[in-house]
Amino acid sequence: MESRTAALGGRPAGQPLISRPGSQARGAAPRQCGGRKASSAGSAARRADSTATQRQGASRAPAPVAAALVDEQFDAAVFAAEPAALEGFPEMQVPEANMVADLETILQERDACGVGFIANLKGLRSHTIITQGGGGGGPGAVTKALRALGCMEHRGACSADDDSGDGAGLMTQVPWKLLKRDVPGVEEGSTGVGMLFLPDDDKLAAQSKAILEEVLAKEGLQLLAYRPVPVRHEVVGRFAKATQPRFEQVVVKGAASSDALERSLFIARKEVEREARKAMGEAAADFYIASFSSRTIVYKGMLRSAVVGEFYLDLADPAYETAFAIYHRRFSTNTTPKWPLAQPMRILGHNGEINTLQGNLNWVASRQAELSHPIWNGRESDLLPLCDASASDSANLDRVAELMVRTGYEPQEALMLLVPEAYRNHPDLMKDYPEVVDFYEYWEGLQEGWDGPALLVFSDGKKIGARLDRNGLRPARFWRTADDTIYVASEVGVLGDVLTNAGNVVAKGRLGPGQSVCADLESGTFEENAAISRDVAARRPYAKWVASSLRRLEQLDAGKWPGEPSMEAARMLRLQAAIGMGAEDAQMVVESMAQTGVEPTYCMGDDIPLAVLSDKPHMLADYFKQRFAQVTNPPIDPLREGLVMSLEMRLGARGNLLQPGEGAYSQVLLKSPILLESQLKAVQEDKKLGSKTFGLSFAVGQAGSMEHALAKLCADVEAAVRAGCQCVVLSDRAAGGATAALEAGRAPVPSLLATGAVHHHLIRAGLRSDTSIVVDTAQAFSTHHAAVLIGYGAHAICPYLAYETARQWRTSSRTVALIKTGKVPDVSVEQAQANLKKSLEKGILKIMSKMGISLLSCYHGAQIFEAYGLGRQIVDAAFTGSVSRIGGLNMADLQREAEGAWAKGFPQATMTKLDDYGFIQSRPKGEYHANNQTMAKLLHKSIGLSQGSAADPESYEAYQKHFKEAPVHVLRDCLELAPPSGSKPISVDEVLKAIETQGSVERDYEIVNTDRSALARVSGVIAKRYGDSGFKGSVRLNLRGSGGQSFGVFLTGLQVRLVGEANDYVGKGMAGGEVVIVPPPGSTFAAESASLVGNTCLYGATGGALYVNGRAGERFAVRNSRAVAVVEGVGDHCCEYMTGGAVIVLGSAGRNAGAGMTGGLAYFYDDGGDFPDKVNTEIVAIQRVITPAGEAQLRGAIEAHAAKTGSARAKALLANWEASKAKFWQLVPPAEKNTAEANPAIAFSAEAAAALPVAATA
């Protein structure tokens, strides 16, 4: 209790720790600077990943010998990107009802974490759930939940300060004993407690409280007190501290109790959130209510696991008693972590990734205005908006789960319908709990799944449990002890008692795919998956509801394949050409699928230009690239794990999620999104669906006609849906389809554009869940076309032109002849169409699996694509929320492309074949391929593989010239490659003679910052002939100006002097030689206080020496293994992961010096006496310079530095050496502790001194 009392400013024991309403007391004592904590395994792992990525780039072999000493660089970008497409999105957006989710914002927030819980089935509240020690749960005991949380540290990550965690926290029951001690008037059952994160600003904090108090009064909740939450600020990392909020608890009393009180608190919190956004704008992001409940409370933050218990002093208080604790450690995949996004949330703790998030958010936005339930007494609108794209996937899933729980669903039931089990083709399920099939089948009509790898732990305060995703892609173990305590964790061993507590464990198990466990804290029961499923399924007559609410498509149409073509061959050929189908598309894609039933595959990679850079016509779908999952590992195998995947879709309105019942919806179940033409007709004619068909065409040659047609289409569809249309059919047949005549003056609106536009228009209108979209199109004949249409809102597709192509292929005389000779398998016309359908379905499954998505109903509308070459006008109209980083076509451009394609269907001469665009195979006059025959021949000749000839420079130059003159095909080619400022690259010939003879040469050159990777080529010549250290000649290069990024990369054999400055990565991969960098003459600034080089210098260096008469940035000498460096000052993380060499810093240093350092020695001049506080002592020891060898190494390096740079600081230190030496610290990793430089017991000789690396360059 002493540390707690001190942290609270000496509050006497027993005195209530409260502030009365209206007071403005701070949440805790003033912040203090404190000692840092040891780096975590999680942060080390993440740094290792990062540096490994950098290392791959750094270790690439130098460019082959060419005619330049300094690399040619990009001078200017000539590809004009749309500014709007490149602008960043605000970190926290104000969500609005029916606002479409934005992928750029979503990509900022994904989680991959460690999670678990501990619960006493008897409901016994004690500190022991939080604490465990040899004598029980008294003060000072090791915390049980916090110990488990600490053992999840490797599942999380730290920021670059090595101390700010991505997030960690606990959810427990409200600690009533502690609150009653500190807050008078608290009564369990009628009291609610909110955990507040307030802005760290007096005015904003007061405004936040004023908003809260106004809402509480309006909602009839009596404010009892604010309770400042005692915390230890000094354990917070530097980055986390910069955004750290103030912490207080608000204690209120309500007239209601139990579930009614929970709903009142929920409404109040939602009201506060909305009012804060209105009144505070962006500042509202700093006002967050982590929990507001009469049952549970959340303590969390941007902390490492190990310091959660140290930061929140309540957790060490013996009066903090609870019957359960959920713990969570966060790894934020893509973002700068934030305090509110730490977990647990209000209901859930989530380990994994929701890969369907954008679609989930869009569906929520569309249906939220129609959600209703009598329990809310007409206040449903006060709960909106439900979700927020700027929050994480975990936070948004928690918001939906919380709504359902507050509406009356038990948490295990809510999680079953939100994250459904793979219930089809499941023998164990059919044997043990078959009744659950009707439950899942019914709920699929109301709620799409939140799909992706997920271990979810949950609690509403009465029940606590866990659920695993349908694939089981996250580990989940549970065990039970003799004292009726249940444990669930991402992995076993989190308590470290697997041996000592073995006799107390009475049961162990694991969660299988799609399974749950749940403990009822009121009844004291614990149920596993089968019992939970049976119980939930038996609560409502789901079988009856399914029978009355769901029809199978087979009931509307048995699905008959046409036995013959429906078009004349010449007409089909014209239509194929007009919609953009080429000869390869027809023959190598459609006909191949019709023949084999398998999606065609070709070589790895795509070497043709992006659609926006191509001079060939492209369909709109070609402008989209599929994204892949962030953390789904291993990926789903659609061939061998197909039992967890499904292509089922529903047609018809969704219904009210909060009020299931017999008449909640009337839908048609599709086994596949690919419809037969007869099935499409049945859907169009179905009276219950009230289907309506809309034509997709626009007037050719009239400016803006396509945009106008699109706007009219959206308005007409909205009117039809409001009138009760539950199935919208978008068809381009009216523009020349199967029955209509091709009309030169009417071209089809791209079906993908129309689908996306209608989809998003209905979302914005709040009508999207009231209808379904079926696309009847000639413009879908590949798996990618189908996937993009479904991803942007199509429930089903009828690819009628693809079917017709398959029919005409099979009935053609050429195919008949090939069948007769046995060169093609004998398939019927019907089978050819079935094969095409089967191929498209297999391809869709494959695409879903790459994103870690199992259900097509979840992939539907998820927009898991990025656009390349589409401008903001098109994206906002039809693909809202999608990322299009480079901008591109506008609506007028797209209309011209559509008109140009359509014109191909009306040639002057009779058409006999389709154009061969050469998108798949390289061919004359076809699309450009980077890997073409000319390139291959030049490459073979340049490296001596052509007819046994030897390599020669002329052949290599021809090879290089080929690429310079090649057509633009990737974005990089849109940048002009030219020497900067009109200067010419320096010929290697100017120094080649000296290299060949190991003679001497000295040259002077100018350099500018666009000269990146300077000196790599000449170093490559030396290394090829002599290796890293065999060159005995002298090549001195005197440079003036600003060195670009990676100046001196892979340097060896050169003595380089740069007068000026340099950017990041100086000496990256340096293997030998010497680099000296000094300020320009006449500089008025003090060199020792000026930054002369950037970050990450000497990254991965294996030799050589660097002398900088100025300061360096962050991560100086990271992963350095043999280089010697002297610098006047450094930023954070100096010598990170260093394994050898020597670093001498003559000025101040940043934090975290020596982190991960396992070899080499480092010397730091400490004039201010604070350097020891900046060292990461996890590995290294810190000591004064205590050996003659260490002194010789240090002094020799400083003398060399003074001689080479003229450093005033070095000269001053040498002038008063004994006093200077006394202020140096030496960092000694384990590998150096028995060297003469670090250990006085090791003999030191003059011969050893002569061999020191710093003397060689003095």
TrEMBL record:
Any one GO BP annotation for this protein: ammonia assimilation cycle
PROSITE patterns membership: GATASE_TYPE_2 (PS51278)
This enzyme's EC code(s): 1.4.7.1
Cofactor dependence: [3Fe-4S] cluster; FMN
Keywords carried by this UniProt record: 3Fe-4S, Amino-acid biosynthesis, Flavoprotein, FMN, Glutamate biosynthesis, Glutamine amidotransferase, Iron, Iron-sulfur, Metal-binding, Oxidoreductase
Residue ranges, annotated region (Disordered): 1-61
Skewed-composition ranges (Low complexity): 35-45
Enzyme kind, highest EC tier: oxidoreductase
Name of the protein in question: glutamate synthase (ferredoxin)
